[in-house]
From TrEMBL:
PANTHER family: NITRATE REDUCTASE MOLYBDENUM COFACTOR ASSEMBLY CHAPERONE, NITRATE REDUCTASE MOLYBDENUM COFACTOR ASSEMBLY CHAPERONE NARJ. InterPro entries: DMSO/NO3_reduct_chaperone, NO3_reductase_chaperone_NarJ, TorD-like_sf. SUPFAM superfamilies: TorD-like (SSF89155). GO terms for molecular function: metallochaperone activity; unfolded protein binding. One of its GO terms (biological process) is chaperone-mediated protein complex assembly. It comes from the Bacteria. Gene3D superfamilies: TorD-like (1.10.3480.10). This is Respiratory nitrate reductase chaperone NarJ. Keywords: Nitrate assimilation. NCBIfam families: narJ.
Length: 221
């Protein structure tokens, strides 16, 4: 298996595991586990495989109601565990609307249409890679690496098993530069930016509606 193919498989598995846990996840678990078992065992891809295998085992051993309750408690009710990547960089400011459009344009160029989720959801970006547009998805992940690192830190502080899935995604990226590490530390310490004083609050739903997008799963941040 080539490294690129392995990265695609890691991202597709992460996409499934980061989605809302329902019967479809339970049904997909055997194939998903088989895919993870076929990943390389060494290096950073081996690290990613170990994280995914551990989470798959957690899913198999946990009743579905507990999985859904934890998902809602972490991703829907805790702002600092937001799975929407542009939130970390832009908060609820006008700049976030433009960033979301960049995601949408990247998907269009790859022939990928997002219909039931915001385009910056980590699971959606991973799905883009898993469906073949690994280079485009990788660029988006690298551009928002500080947000992914911040999400990982937040999930670990909550002792959430989902931290392993996010760690698996990060393991597919190049080692962070000093600048990227500094950005992640700054974001973790300061949080997302707020709207500038004197401006009307940014309305994410209105911005998405004008761009032809509308969130339908799990709300928005």
């Amino acid at each position: 298996m080539t490294d690129q193919r392995a990265v695609r498989n890691v991202h597709m598995a992460a996409s499934v595991l980061l989605g809302y846990p329902d019967e479809r996840l339970v049904e997909a678990l055997p194939v998903l586990s088989q895919t993870v078992a076929g990943l390389p065992s060494g290096g950073r891809l081996g690290e990613a495989a170990a994280h995914l295998a551990a989470f798959a085992d957690h899913v198999a051993a946990t009743p579905l109601p507990e999985l859904t309750a934890h998902y809602v408690a972490v991703f829907d009710l805790k702002r600092r565990c937001c799975p929407y990547l542009t939130y970390y960089t832009y908060g609820d400011t006008r700049k976030r609307g433009m960033a979301l459009l960049r995601f949408k344009h990247a998907y269009r160029e790859a022939g990928f249409e997002v219909t039931d989720e915001l385009p910056d959801h980590l699971a959606v970006v991973c799905e883009l890679s898993g469906r073949g547009a690994t280079e485009a998805a990788g660029r988006l992940l690298r551009e928002h690496r500080a947000g992914v690192e911040t999400l990982l830190h937040a999930l670990r502080s909550e002792a959430s098993p989902y931290a392993g899935v996010v760690a698996a995604v990060l393991a597919t990226l190049p080692e962070p530069t000093a600048r990227e590490r500094a950005a992640a530390l700054r974001l973790a310490a300061e949080g997302p930016p707020a709207e500038e004083v004197g401006l009307e609050p940014f309305s994410l739903d209105a911005s998405l509606e004008s761009a032809g997008m509308a969130p339908t799963r799990g709300g928005s941040r």
